[in-house]
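Hi V.,

You were right to ask for the full record rather than a summary. Here it is.
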Amino acid sequence: MSGLSDYSSKAFLNWLAGGAATPSLPAVYLALFTAVGVDAGTGFTEVSGGSYARVQVAGAVTAAGAISTGAATVTMPNVSGYPWVAPGMNVYDATNSKQIGTVLSWVGTTLTLTGNASNNGSGSTDSLIFSAFSPASGSAPSSNTNGAAITFPQATGSWGTAIAFGLYDASSSGNLLHWDYLGNYSWLPATVSSASPGILTVKGHGYSAADPIVFSTEFGGTAPSFSQSNFTGVLAVVSPATDSFSVTNASTAVNTSSTGSGMVRKILQQSIPSGITASFAASAFTLTLA
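Predicted structure:
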C-alpha cells in the first residue's frame, strides 16, 4: 500500500532498533506513474518518452562561505551546477543539524534567503540540504508540503494518464523511497456484498458517480471472489448512496460471488498530453506518513 517503500521501512526500523545507521542523506527525485506496483519497488509503470524526466526535489550542496543570523545571504558554488534549486525550497544545515531558512533566489554564487538565516553555520564546510518540502509537522500521521513549485519538463509527446508518484534516490533506476497515489484523499474501510454488481459499504464516503477509486487488502480484509471483472487497478464509482456504491472496472460492472472487506480510496487521475508542462504549485503537494 502507498507510503514508505520496503527499502525505506527497513532502513528506518534498523535505525530505530539500533541495528544500523540510516543511509546517507540522498538526492531525491520525483517520478510519475501510470500504473502502480508493490512496496518492494517493482511493478510500477513510470512515464517514459516525450521528454519526460524525473525532477530533483532535494539534494546537498556544500556552502562556500559563512552562514550568519545577521545576514540573509550565503556564498555558495555557482548555481549553474545546481539548476534544480528553486525559490521556496527549505534549507537545512546537515553539518550542524539546524534549519537555515527558505530560498528567495540563487544567482551566481549568492544564495539569498527570505530572511536572515535562522541559525549560524560554521562556514564553507557546511553541507546544506535543499528540499522542495517544508519540515514535517503534526503528530502521527505527520505530513509536509512543498514550499517550492515542482515542475517537470514540457511534454513533447503524450505521457498518458498519471495516477501516482514516487520518490527515488537517483535520476533513473535507484531505490524507491516512498510512493503514493495522486490526490490527497484518505483510505476508508469497506465491506463488499456478494451480488451483481457487488455493493461496497463505506460509511460517509462522500464519493460522486464516476469518481476514480482503488481497493486494497494490504492492511487487513479479504478480497471477494468475482463472477465478472475484479477490483484490480483504477475503478469508477457507480450509483453512490450515502454509505454505499458499486463500481466498474474499465467500464465493466464488477460482480462478486462472495463477500469481502478491505480499504478504498479516491484518487486523482491526470492526463498529460503533448505540449503540457506538468507541475505542482507551492503548497499543492503533501507527503503523509502515519
